[in-house]
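Structure (tokenized):
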């Protein structure tokens, strides 16, 4: 869906235009062919580059490789220069971005608070091997979370499609997550798809469903919701459904003039309020 981040501010304009037709195309293909791989080609828009280019981009963004126990790269990170860190943030981006493309989030967050920021790369994105699907995105999140350790609180930032990944983590490992912020979220990908294709049985046909509201029912920590009034990729009502269904501590930031995953300037003000909300609970 991050730009149905489903489109994030870091995603290219080409992806944004294609995402506007995402569900009509995905469902039409499913009806015609019943083929999950073809659906996924219409849902995920992974930027691809080789390791040398990734290293150059990471260096330019002041990021370093984040690796697993076998030494394989699973994303990028930037540790706060202020020690000790107040916590660790795991960021899950939208469907047309990449971990390196989310460096601006690390910039904004670390300008207001001393957090270590970890940017999870999805299979098939950047220079990470594999192919994207709901299952592979969740598996990559399962792998990354334990590597953050248990000596500091862990917070989740989800963007567009990545809000589905963040919701999965919060509901699957509720004792590990100290707080969450969801940027342009949705209650379920199938509901967003049905909105874009009202005459087709999306709930029967869509393979990757990302049922965020189901996962968040298992979590009880603070969750923030950022909603944009002019979001045509993931209309605001789907984020509000998720907000209304959540029973734990929550706060909503509504930006009536914002498009998909658009945080108004100054962004530092928004992130300062997010951190204060997290730590007030």
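Design, position by position:
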């Amino acid at each position: 869906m991050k730009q149905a981040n489903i489109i994030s501010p870091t995603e290219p304009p080409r992806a944004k235009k294609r995402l506007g037709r995402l569900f009509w195309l995905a469902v039409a293909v499913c009806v015609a062919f019943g083929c999950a791989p073809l659906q996924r080609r219409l849902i995920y828009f992974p930027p691809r580059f080789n390791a040398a280019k990734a290293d150059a981009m990471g260096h330019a963004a002041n990021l370093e490789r984040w690796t697993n126990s076998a030494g394989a790269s699973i994303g990028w990170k930037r540790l706060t220069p202020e020690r000790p860190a107040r916590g660790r943030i795991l960021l899950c981006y939208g469907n047309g971005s990449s971990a390196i493309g989310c460096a601006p989030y690390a910039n904004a967050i670390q300008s207001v608070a001393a957090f270590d920021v970890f940017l999870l790369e999805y299979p098939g994105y950047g220079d990470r091997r594999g192919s994207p699907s709901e299952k592979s995105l969740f598996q990559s999140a399962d792998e990354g979370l334990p590597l953050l350790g248990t000596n500091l609180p862990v917070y989740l930032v989800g963007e567009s499609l990545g809000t589905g990944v963040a919701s999965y983590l919060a509901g699957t490992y509720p004792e590990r997550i100290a707080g969450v912020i969801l940027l342009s979220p949705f209650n379920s990908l199938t509901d967003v798809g049905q909105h874009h294709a009202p005459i087709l049985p999306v709930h029967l046909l869509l393979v990757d469903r990302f049922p965020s509201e189901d996962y968040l029912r298992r979590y009880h920590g603070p969750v923030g919701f950022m909603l944009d009034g002019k979001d045509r990729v993931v209309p605001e009502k789907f984020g509000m459904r998720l907000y209304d269904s959540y029973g734990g501590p929550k706060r909503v930031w509504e930006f009536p003039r914002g498009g998909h995953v658009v945080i108004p300037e100054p962004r530092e003000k928004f992130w300062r309020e997010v951190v204060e909300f997290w730590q007030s609970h």
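Reviewer-requested clarification: The chain has twelve helices and eight strands. The two ends are 30 Å apart (CA to CA).
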